[in-house]
């Protein structure tokens, strides 16, 4: 059943747009996001920038409901990703998370072989055929530009890979369940410049194929890879617009101060 | 990492420490220190009178340890204890040094059963048949239709020694007996287990439990002379023991009023040595 | 610099002392066991069930089998329950509830085993008797009592094993669309496995080494014919006959030999676990 759905989705290139309206998030009594509304066209890359604790990671985690892991959290407003009503209590979170993949700040390869890492999602989704799994693993590793480095070593532990390779493995793992949206939470924060460049290359390649939201502290990175930039501050979405416009002519004074380093 | 040399030094130091401990223990015994070891059934009685003796002999310290009759006698033979408490006679050849025996009197042993078994007493022969495993249901003795569950003490027990010699004779205990280590555990087992029978030294209070008559004899603490089943606990010391040790043994032997500990003193009227 | 050297010295001394003390322990037991083997051989006592130490018969097969049976029984009974408790305490309970649960378990670790023995005598043995129609004394009762006795220790260690699984792995699994159950079985438990195995071994050690609680409910006979008939384990018999055969008697060497067997049984288990771990990693 699940496998069938997955198979059907593969061929079709439905890319999904993201619509957020009046989103509010509290952690216990503390408000983390206030009145955030935005629209992201399908296939576009949105970079979230802003000082630490501004709510950009919280925003990201609302999109695939990973925010549910925080016991005291309350979320209000509406979030739609394609046909998914994300904040609906009855939503199939599993289906949502397969559609909306995520890559974390610290590479978090599972303590198993490279092959099993990539096959983890498909296996849980019900893919049993060994041939099919091998195909998915190979495709995913090729998409994340890791295949040439690990072919013939798929039975090695993922822990033997370098940090940059591990992060691309996590990309491949996310791609293996055929998502349409990718959430990237500071994906290069712990990587060296060469590995960072490779990840950025991937993001540029994926443009148009996946709708992507990337949280980053690196403003040059945002400028290099994104189509749109959203600036968050203290839980508010201060400004959002095309990357070029935001970096050259921001509308808000706070945005300008942040971009020119005069912030606080 | 520790080096091989450090390892050897550590091993050497530990063996020196072990030897040193032994020498210092010997030196201590030459000081004013008496150690008593052996049967747990004697401990309450001995402990009750020690403070008085220690008060009369300032500077003397007495240590009391359990471990059972065999352990006490063995420690006496090895010179690790000055006085052994034992409620059984040492088997031939167990002690190689000459010893003196200070009998403490009688310690009655009674057969106990739960009320459900439906009989009030046993003859010597019936008791033997029950503990040897010949009788497997109380029905065979005119009691309830309940399987017999015999509860015994381990071989190290003085009470078991008495049971073996006086009741079972040449027969061994049934291999189906349940073995419990203490009087208390035997009592608890008998109370909790329908059809159980056991034997205990009459030091413990005999509540919730039927004390069986033996060959028509009723156990009555006031007429203890008539009760036929008993251990004869005694203190043993080396014949060449120091004066203080002999004095302590004689003092303990002469204490009256040990009934509250289940002992019936040899000095009480009407007592006749069985051996 | 000097403080550094002092600290180094203390750590080395601690380690040296450990080696020294346990070498002496093992040596004392080994010397006794060696005396025993010289006189009785080592194969006959292991293959015979005739235990009559005062008469010079030292067949301990029944005790070895008894130890293995009772320990296995206890772990089979305890392990699923402990795993469930560990998951409840490590992943489901939160905040004060979790803290209270851990504190309770820690307190229960301190309950002396003789209490479990008494408690087995008054509750487990009558229960087994009612269900089976036998006396109720035997390996089954001993296994149940041991299972209950090891639950607190075993649970605490298993709980910490489950809790130490990095949340990055759990989130990684959930983010791929795994359900909580799938994450538990495919991520949390496999990642916790080495620490769980360590907890399991400690539980085995506790069960294998227990004396008084077992002795009070197993019946104390040198046979193993049924789970419901009186029998004995290496440890319960050691305890029973220690008073009969104090140190420096001929029979005492037999007890040393039994103690060596306990150490060997444990060593085999530790070795097995080590190999399994290596197998998993490779």
TrEMBL record, chain A:
Tell me if Nucleotide-binding is a UniProt keyword of this record.
yes
**Where in the numbering of this chain does the ABC transporter domain appear?**
18-259
Q: A Gene Ontology MF term for this entry?
A: ATP binding
Q: Which UniProt keywords apply?
A: ATP-binding, Nucleotide-binding, Transport
Carries keyword Oxidoreductase? no
Q: Which PANTHER family match?
A: ABC TRANSPORTER I FAMILY MEMBER 17
What name goes with this protein?
Answer: Phosphate ABC transporter ATP-binding protein
According to its UniProt entry, this protein's organism is Sulfobacillus thermotolerans
Automatic annotation (TrEMBL), chain B:
| Cellular location(s) | Cell membrane
Q: Which residues form the PBP domain?
A: 30-206
* UniProt KW Signal keyword: yes
Q: Which UniProt keywords apply?
A: Lipoprotein, Palmitate, Phosphate transport, Signal, Transport
Question: How is the protein disposed in the membrane?
Answer: Lipid-anchor
Function of this protein?
Part of the ABC transporter complex PstSACB involved in phosphate import.
Its assembly, as annotated, is:
The complex is composed of two ATP-binding proteins (PstB), two transmembrane proteins (PstC and PstA) and a solute-binding protein (PstS).
Task: Name the family.
Answer: Belongs to the PstS family.
Protein name in UniProt: PBP domain-containing protein
Q: Which organism is it from?
A: Sulfobacillus thermotolerans
């Amino acid at each position: 059943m699940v496998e069938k759905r997955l198979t059907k989705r593969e061929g079709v290139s439905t890319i999904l747009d993201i619509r957020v309206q009046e989103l509010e998030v509290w952690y216990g009594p503390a408000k983390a996001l206030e009145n955030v509304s935005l629209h992201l066209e399908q296939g576009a890359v949105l970079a979230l920038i802003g000082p630490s604790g501004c709510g950009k990671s919280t925003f990201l985690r609302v999109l695939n409901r990973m925010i549910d892991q925080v016991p005291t959290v309350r979320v209000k407003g509406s979030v739609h990703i394609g046909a998914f009503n994300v904040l609906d209590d009855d939503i199939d979170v599993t289906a949502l998370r397969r559609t909306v993949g995520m890559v974390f700040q610290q590479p978090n390869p599972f303590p198993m072989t490279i092959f099993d890492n990539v096959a983890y999602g498909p296996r849980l989704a019900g893919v049993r055929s060994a041939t099919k799994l091998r195909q998915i693993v190979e495709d995913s590793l090729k998409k994340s530009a890791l295949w040439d480095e690990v072919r013939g070593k798929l039975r090695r532990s993922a822990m033997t890979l370098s940090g940059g390779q591990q992060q691309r493995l996590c990309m491949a793992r996310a791609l293996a369940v055929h998502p349409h949206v990718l959430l990237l939470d500071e994906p290069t924060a712990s990587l060296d410049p060469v590995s960072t460049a490779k990840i950025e290359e991937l993001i540029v390649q994926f443009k148009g194929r996946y709708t992507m939201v990337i949280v980053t502290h690196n403003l040059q990175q945002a400028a290099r890879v994104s189509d749109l930039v959203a600036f968050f501050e203290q839980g508010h979405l201060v400004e959002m617009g095309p990357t070029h416009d935001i970096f050259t002519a921001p509308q808000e004074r706070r945005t300008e101060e942040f971009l020119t380093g005069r912030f606080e | 990492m520790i080096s091989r040399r450090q390892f050897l030094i550590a091993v050497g130091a530990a063996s020196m420490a072990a030897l040193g401990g032994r020498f210092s223990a010997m030196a201590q015994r030459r000081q004013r220190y008496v150690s008593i070891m052996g049967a747990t059934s004697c401990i309450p009685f001995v402990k009750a009178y020690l403070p008085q003796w220690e008060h009369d002999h300032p500077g003397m310290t007495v240590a009391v340890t359990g471990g059972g009759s065999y352990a006490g006698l063995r420690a006496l033979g090895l010179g690790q204890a000055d006085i052994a408490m034992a409620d059984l006679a040492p088997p031939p050849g167990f002690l190689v040094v000459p010893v003196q025996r200070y009998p403490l009197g009688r310690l009655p042993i009674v057969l106990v059963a739960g009320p459900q078994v439906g009989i009030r007493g046993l003859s010597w022969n019936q008791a033997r048949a029950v503990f040897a495993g010949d009788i497997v249901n109380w029905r065979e003795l005119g009691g309830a239709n309940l399987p017999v569950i015999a509860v015994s003490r381990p071989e190290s027990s003085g009470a078991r020694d008495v049971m073996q010699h006086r009741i079972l004779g040449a027969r061994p205990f049934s291999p189906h007996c349940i073995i419990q280590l203490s009087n208390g555990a035997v009592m608890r087992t008998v109370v909790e287990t329908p059809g159980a029978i056991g034997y205990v030294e009459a030091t413990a209070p005999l509540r919730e439990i039927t004390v069986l008559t033996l060959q028509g004899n009723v156990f009555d603490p006031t007429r203890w002379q008539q009760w036929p089943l008993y251990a004869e606990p005694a203190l043993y010391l080396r014949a060449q023991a120091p004066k203080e040790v002999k004095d302590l043994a004689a003092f303990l032997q002469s204490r009256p009023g040990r009934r509250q500990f289940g002992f019936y003193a040899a000095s009480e009227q009407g007592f006749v040595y069985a051996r | 610099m000097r403080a550094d050297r002092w600290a180094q010295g203390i750590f080395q001394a601690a380690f040296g002392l450990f080696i020294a003390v346990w070498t002496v322990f093992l040596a004392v037991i080994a010397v006794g066991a060696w005396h025993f083997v010289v006189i009785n051989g080592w194969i006959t006592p292991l293959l015979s069930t005739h235990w009559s130490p005062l008469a010079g018969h030292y067949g301990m097969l029944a005790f070895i089998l008894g130890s293995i049976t009772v320990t296995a029984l206890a772990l089979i009974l305890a392990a699923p329950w402990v795993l469930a408790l560990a998951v409840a305490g490590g992943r489901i309970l939160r905040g004060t509830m979790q803290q209270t649960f851990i504190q309770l378990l820690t307190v229960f670790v301190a309950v002396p085993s003789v209490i479990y023995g008494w408690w087995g005598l008054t509750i487990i043995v009558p229960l087994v008797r009612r269900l089976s129609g036998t006396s109720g004394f035997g390996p089954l009762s001993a296994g149940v009592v041991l299972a209950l006795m090891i639950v607190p220790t075993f649970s605490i260690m298993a709980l910490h094993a489950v809790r130490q699984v990095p949340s990055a792995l759990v989130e990684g699994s959930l983010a791929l669309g795994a359900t909580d159950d799938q994450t538990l079985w495919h991520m949390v438990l496999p990642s916790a496995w080495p620490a769980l195995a360590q907890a399991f071994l400690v539980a085995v050690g506790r069960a294998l080494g227990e004396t008084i609680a077992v002795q009070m409910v197993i019946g104390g006979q040198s046979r193993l014919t049924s789970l419901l008939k009186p029998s004995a384990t290496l440890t319960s018999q050691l305890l029973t006959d220690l008073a009969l055969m104090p140190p420096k008697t001929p029979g005492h060497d037999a007890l040393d030999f039994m103690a060596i067997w306990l150490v060997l049984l444990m060593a085999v288990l530790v070795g097995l676990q080590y190999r399994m771990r290596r197998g998993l990693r490779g």
